[in-house]
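Supplementary Text 2. Reproducibility record for the structural model of the 347-residue chain.

All settings were left at their defaults, and a single model was retained for analysis rather than an ensemble. We include the record here because the model underlies the residue-level annotations in Supplementary Table 4.
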Amino acid sequence: MGRALKRLGCREVVLIGGEAYLRDDIYAVVEALAQMEMRVVMQTGGRGLNRERARALRESGLSSLGVSVDGTALVHDKLRGNLGSYRAAMTALAVAAEAGLIIAANTQVNRLNHLLLWETYRPLREIGIQSWQVQLTVPMGRAADRPEWLLEPWMVPEVIETLAAIQLAAYRDARSEVPFNLIAGNNLGYYGPHEAVLRSLPGSGQVEHWGGCKAGINVIGIESDGTIKGCPSLPTAPYTGGNVRDVGLDDIWAHAEALRFTRERDVDELWGFCRSCYYAEECKAGCSWMTHCAMGRRGNNPFCYHRVKELEKRGIREKLIPLGRAPDLPYDFARFELVEEPIERGL
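Retained model, structure tokens:
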């Protein structure tokens, strides 16, 4: 598998969960990938990462460790369904830093924590993370059956504005010698006044903006059983391109329709507001993971800063109505109906 990734030009491999560090052969896997001159990083919840494992991972060639921290302690533990998860996550960051690993964090934003972003950020910054990826909670897995956790589309602008303020504050903080970058996840945006702040590397001099879903373009997902998807986040059933136990990775990458959709798509796939949007050609309805899991298919994304603000000018906003429960399958997702309602001024 590593050799096939190398042939495709892969430069970075992210090992994600379950908890990858619990594999008996994890150190051999990391070492083999690192020896192929690929940057190897790991994303974890951190519950079982101790000093010995962190040190062994670093010695094997791991470059960076990212830990999921989904709010303050009470909120994080509720979202994760395990008391003590927050403490374990912060401990994992501490022992990883002690072992010499670059440390990072990622956070999913939802109704439980969207007003606690500063409180989430401060202890992460204090512990020395160098990057913080923030994304919206998607109706997949446990969240698929808890619509009350999900942000309504009209709540998104406040989240983006707060994150932009955090990014700028961190950039101005001359007291810290540790670099920091807040990274807007692929399902967070798009095209508002804060787009460049959240997508550009501070101090780089380059202005970046959302350029469309990159699944099957510069990213690939490999599940534990060998299933191949264009992105590890995508739901499995509609996006399986094949299995490396049956077909070579090179062949799946080149020919599987489930991986080629981003390379061949155009605006004809879009529907609803996104079809007539000014940014349709460039954006193509944002993150495919978010749109498919919320709306049942790609092409219309209500979780968009620009869209919310445009609808606001017309005095309306959108909300999601659940249409049923998720089917209890791996990477399952719920489905919602999108309805419009008048904005009550003063809310």
